[in-house]
Every structure is written in C-alpha cells, then in structure tokens.
Amino acid sequence: MADFFEWFFDLPVIFQALGGVIIGAIPFLESYIAGFLGAMFGFPWPFALLAGVVGNVLALIVAVPLGARVAARRQGKEMTLRQQKVLDRTNRFGIPVAALLAPTLMAISLTAFIMAAAGLERRRTFWWNVVAVVVWGAALTGFGVWAREVFVT
User: Fold this and answer.
1) How far apart are the C-alpha atoms of 121 and 116, rounded to whole Å?
2) Nearest 5°: phi and psi at 14?
3) With the C-alpha atoms ordered 44, 130, 143, 37, is the resulting torsion angle positive or negative?
4) Average pLDDT value for the chain
C-alpha cells in the first residue's frame, strides 16, 4: 500500500487532481471522501476539495436529468408507497433540508436522482445538491486536514 501512495504522489499534480475528480464522481465516495483522502495524504486541501466537488457536480449533471427522465415517463402513473413517502418528507422539510441531510443516509448523486425522479423541480434539486456537495466536502476536507495534523505529523 505504501508503494501505491509513493507512486501516486510521484505523478504530476494534474493526474493527482484527476484522481480526486474520479473519486468525487463515484457515488458514496463523492466530494467528502475525495477531499478527506486528499487532505489526509498531503495533497493541498483546496485542490483536494475542488477536485472532489468537480467530480461530484459532474455526477449530479448526469443524475438529475436522468431522474427527470424517469419522472417524465411516470407522468400519469400512480406512485408507489415508497415514492410517496420520499415526496411527502421532501415536501414537509423542503428540498434544501432534504439535500443537506440526505448524505447521512445515501449518496448525494443518488439523492438528486431520487428527488428528480419523484418530480421535484430540477433546477432547485440540482443547485441544493451542489450546496450539499460543497458543505459536506468542505466539512470532511477540514476533518482530513485536522486528522493529518493529529495523526501524521
């Protein structure tokens, strides 16, 4: 494992950042894990956060329109009980709260897909999930910076 990290940090910075973008685009890893790992392993934290956010936003650019497509196909069909529960909870708390709290349970891109598929407004769904990407990414990147200070140095 140490050989991998040595090899990775010998790569040019652009390839290291590309690794952060790729991690950021993977559901359940996303910006928060990309930022945390980047900061923890010594990559400059602003670049680690930016790479993770870029990857996660790219995933959202794919997830929200796909969810909207599903919603368009389901137009006129009755919702399942599970779909109705998601929609009821989102209507009760609002898109901002749902977008900001959902990463405690599932991936941000999956949350955005489900919200768009449930028929929620695409633009608000997208932008509030971008806010969630930045907030969660910044929080865990900060945690990675702290962890590096405490455990590595």
Assistant:
1) 7
2) -60, -35
3) negative
4) 90
Cα separation, 123 vs 141, whole angstroms = 27
Q: How far apart are the first and last CA of the chain?
A: 19
Q: What is the pLDDT of residues 51-100, one digit of tens each?
A: 999 999 999 999 999 999 999 998 888 878 877 887 787 788 889 998 99
> Which structural domain, as residue segments, surrounds residue 145?
2-152
Residues 123-152 have a mean pLDDT of 95
Please, which pLDDT band fits residue 2 given cuts at 50, 70 and 90? low
Burial class (CB in 10 A: 0-12, 13-18, 19+), 153: exposed
Q: Is residue 61 within 8 Å of 32, Cβ to Cβ? A: no
Number of domains in the chain: 1
Q: Is 20 exposed, middle or buried (0-12, 13-18, 19+ CB in 10 A)?
A: buried
Closest Cα to residue 64, out of 138, 135, 143, 127?
127
What is the model's pLDDT at position 4?
A: 74
